[in-house]
């Protein structure tokens, strides 16, 4: 897909190489984690660390997953305003939740085995991506564009199905469903976190082993193929990694649409390099820093009762509109 916006210009700090910028960002992440865990402890230290560490791990996993998935998807599409949400993942998640509430009822939905629910949601999202690749991708850039357009159509179809289910729910069921559709970082099962951490660790290893080929993908299909890259295999691998990362994040906490767009754009500006060996860890760390510091400010400094995801989506949506307006003026 042709690039819809000009590539963000990196900020040039002559005294800071990309490696030093990564080290500085890692230091900020560690500092934010320490503040989040130790600020305003009113109970015993052991109890407080145990209570806060579960939410902290969730924030770190989601920050890594969403940021990395968005970066990979933009590398594949060569477009800086697209996110994996264009493939209809968020709409599919909403449809799954709607059908579960309608068929199981409030009690059945709230008592559903969390591991079975998580596994089903993750498997369905990955399967949907594989089916779209199998049916629509024909090994060229045009078919990749067609597959993304098909993702938009499927997203509209899933949204329409969800709207139909909404009308069949009673007020109590609708309230439970609405609560489930807002991303929350507090009520995640520890075993699910361990499983997700293991899957993301394997994903991180795969990304590190292929970061050089991801750099070649930025050159476009013709250039990548002339350099000896198996373009079709790379497209499938990137789509699989994106599907795994997005499905894990969405199944854990719910949809977070614009967060990745905001973080990845800042990563391009601040990382000091377009090489994926710097971009991937920089975007992941920046996503972690944004979520941890945002949760710290929201919970400990402002005492707001709203969810962090609502604020992130609000500012992320404004940022997306700003990118569109800026490109229109350009």
Automatic annotation (TrEMBL):
One GO cellular component this record assigns the protein to is:
plasma membrane
| Subcellular location as annotated | Cell membrane
Report which residue ranges the record marks as coiled coil. none
User: What residue ranges are annotated as transmembrane?
Assistant: 20-37, 57-76, 88-109, 115-136, 148-169, 181-208, 229-246, 252-271, 278-298, 304-325
Q: Does the keyword Transmembrane apply?
A: yes
In terms of InterPro entries, this protein maps to: ABC_BtuC-like (IPR037294), ABC_transptr_permease_BtuC (IPR000522)
Which example biological process does GO assign this protein? siderophore-iron import into cell
Topological category with respect to the lipid bilayer: Multi-pass membrane protein
Domain of life from the UniProt record: Bacteria
Keywords on record:
Cell membrane, Membrane, Transmembrane, Transmembrane helix, Transport
For this protein, the record's CDD domains field holds: TM_ABC_iron-siderophores_like (cd06550)
For molecular function, the Gene Ontology terms on record are: transmembrane transporter activity
Give the matching PANTHER family: FERRIC ENTEROBACTIN TRANSPORT SYSTEM PERMEASE PROTEIN, PETROBACTIN IMPORT SYSTEM PERMEASE PROTEIN YCLO
- Can you say what this protein is called? Putative iron ABC transporter permease component
């Amino acid at each position: 897909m042709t690039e819809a916006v000009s590539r963000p210009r990196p900020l040039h700090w002559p005294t800071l190489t990309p490696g030093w910028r990564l080290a500085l960002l890692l230091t900020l992440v560690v500092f934010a984690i320490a503040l989040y865990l130790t600020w305003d402890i009113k109970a015993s230290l052991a109890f407080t660390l145990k209570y806060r560490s579960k939410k902290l791990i969730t924030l770190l996993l989601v920050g890594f997953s969403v940021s990395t998935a968005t970066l990979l998807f933009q590398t594949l599409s060569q477009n800086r305003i697209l996110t994996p949400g264009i493939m209809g993942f968020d709409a599919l998640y909403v449809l799954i939740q709607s059908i579960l509430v309608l068929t199981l009822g409030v009690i059945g939905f709230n008592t559903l085995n969390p591991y079975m629910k998580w596994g089903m949601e993750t498997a369905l999202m990955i399967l949907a991506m594989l089916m779209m690749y199998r049916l629509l991708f024909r090994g060229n850039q045009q078919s990749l564009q067609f597959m993304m357009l098909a993702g938009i159509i499927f997203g509209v179809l899933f949204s329409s199905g969800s709207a139909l289910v909404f009308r069949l729910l009673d007020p109590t069921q609708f309230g439970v469903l609405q609560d489930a559709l807002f991303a929350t970082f507090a009520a995640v099962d520890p075993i699910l976190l361990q499983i997700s951490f293991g899957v993301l660790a394997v994903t991180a290893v795969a990304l590190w082993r292929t970061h050089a080929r991801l750099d070649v993908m930025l050159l476009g299909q013709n250039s990548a193929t002339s350099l000896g890259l198996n373009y079709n295999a790379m497209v499938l691998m990137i789509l699989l990694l994106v599907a795994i990362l997005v499905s894990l994040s969405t199944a854990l906490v719910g949809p977070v649409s614009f967060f990745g767009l905001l973080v990845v754009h800042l990563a391009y500006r601040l990382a000091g390099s377009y090489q994926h060996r710097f971009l991937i860890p920089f975007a992941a760390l920046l996503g972690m820093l944004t979520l941890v510091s945002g949760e710290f400010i929201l919970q400990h400094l402002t005492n707001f009762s709203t969810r962090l995801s609502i604020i992130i989506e609000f500012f992320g949506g404004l940022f997306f509109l700003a990118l569109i307006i800026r490109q229109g003026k350009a």
